[in-house]
Design brief:
The complex is a heterodimer of chains A (about 170) and B (about 190). By secondary structure, chain A is α+β, with helices and mostly antiparallel strands. Chain A has one domain (about 25-170). Chain A has helices at about 1-25, 30-40, 50-60, 80-95, 145-155, 160-165, 165-169, and strands at about 45, 65-75, 100-105, 110-120, 125-130, 135-140. In chain A, helix 2 (about 30-40) packs antiparallel against helix 4. Chain B is α+β, with helices and mostly antiparallel strands. Chain B has a domain at about 30-160. Chain B has seven helices and six strands, in the order ααβααβαββββαα. Chain B has helices at about 1-20, 30-40, 50-60, 65-75, 95-105, 160-165, 175-190, and strands at about 40-50, 80-85, 110-120, 125-130, 135-145, 150-155. Chain B has a six-stranded antiparallel β-sheet, sandwiched between helices. Chain B is globular, with a radius of gyration of 20 Å. The termini of chain B are far apart. Classes of the chains: A alpha+beta (about 170), B alpha+beta (about 190). The interface of A and B includes residues 103, 104 and 123 of A. Strand 3 of chain A pairs antiparallel with strand 1 of chain B.
Chain lengths: ~170, ~190
């Protein structure tokens, strides 16, 4: 009886951290979206069947692009403090993510933030884009090797005249 | 038992230290850049740290000669940092602001390589290189137009021969011109 008692205590002790971790296991994407919602008092529109869209894109690009998450804020309230938005996103994404690109306008109605998370084989991309009253948050995972192959194939098939357009400028 | 735990913690710290030291941090932007950013109509920033460059270099490997050149060049770099300030009309920054940007890098480690001034248009280009034990350890480019200021900072060993190859990367188009300027300078030096 005493042994059974100890086993049940051990099971509960093992389960508690699992439950706590699962409960607090909000994804980076959700964490950023929720923070934007509470900071700017707006609600995000989630795209229905995005899981299916993500699966299809992963199949059609042969694993090139996957893990797609999109949140769209329509009627976003006016200009924002770019530094504040940048801090909020960086803080919620946490370590491992680095900001690669930031575009900001002085009026605050155009902001673009692109964060990347280089992994072993894939790279995470996190994009926050504000254009006047619309803000989009997109997260995706890309296989750079795949994308490079596609780009190389495109360049290979590009007619000579088009290839030289950039260089001739 | 306590000693063993202490030894384990210290061991882990010693092992972790070099790994941390390897990720070189890019220097903070000069204070004048904050003031410029506040006055600019739009600000574009591109930051590629050592991790990102190492990751990109992994995928540059291929049969293509240019890719191999870029891979070789970016593999050893500590970071690439670009800032572009665009103003809606001329006169929104002063010569003093530009001088302060230059001074930030005018230390004993940095030597001027290219100094180009156009008095008519007010445009100027400065290229400085960082020399560490006779080897190039970085490059700073400051390009000033009446309505635009571009700052490019590349940290790490740079091979001048491969520099132009980086010009195909977004925002680094000016590097092709820098490579040509360096080659011209070397040629002139050789004839003297």
């Amino acid at each position: 009886m005493r042994r059974l008692w100890w086993i049940s205590i051990a099971v509960v002790a093992l389960l508690v951290p699992v439950v706590v971790l699962a409960g607090s296991g909000e994804s980076e994407f959700d964490s950023v979206v929720h923070s934007i919602e509470s900071k700017y008092h707006v609600r995000a529109n989630r795209i229905p069947f995005l899981g299916v869209v993500s699966m299809i894109s992963e199949n059609t690009t042969q694993g090139g692009v996957g893990g797609l998450h999109v949140a769209d804020f329509e009627s976003f309230p006016g200009p924002v403090d770019g530094e504040e938005l940048n801090r909020l996103v960086a803080q919620k994404l946490g370590a491992g993510w680095g900001r690669m690109i930031r575009e900001t306008s002085s009026k605050g109605n155009e902001q673009t933030l692109i964060f990347v998370h280089p992994g072993e084989k894939r790279m995470g991309l996190f994009i926050v884009d504000l254009d006047k009253n619309e803000l989009n948050v997109v997260e995706l995972s890309v296989d750079p090797r795949h994308l490079k192959e596609s780009l190389d194939r495109y360049q290979h098939h590009q007619p000579q005249g088009e290839k030289d357009v950039e260089g001739s400028e | 038992m306590q000693n063993r735990i202490m030894a384990l913690v210290l061991g882990a710290a010693v092992l972790a230290a070099p790994a941390r030291a390897q990720t070189a941090k890019l220097p903070a932007p000069s204070p004048v850049e904050k003031a410029l950013a506040a006055r600019a109509f739009s600000v574009d920033e591109v930051t590629l740290d050592k991790n990102m460059l190492a990751f990109a270099a992994k995928f540059m490997a291929g049969k293509n000669k240019d890719d191999a050149g870029i891979q070789h060049l970016i593999d050893g770099l500590d970071g690439i940092y670009i800032r572009d300030y665009e103003f809606d009309k001329p006169g929104q920054f002063t010569a003093e602001d530009v001088e302060q940007l230059r001074k930030y890098f005018e230390t004993s480690e940095w030597s001027p390589l290219v100094r180009d001034r156009d008095r008519k248009t007010g445009e100027s280009t400065d290229v400085m290189i960082k020399l560490v034990n006779g080897k190039t350890g970085g490059m700073f480019i400051l390009d000033v137009c009446p309505k635009e200021i571009s700052v490019v900072l590349i940290l790490g060993p740079i091979r001048m021969d491969d520099l132009g190859k980086l010009s195909s990367l977004g925002g680094l188009g000016a590097l092709g011109t820098v490579e040509k300027s360096v080659q011209d300078k070397e040629k002139k030096g050789g004839h003297q």
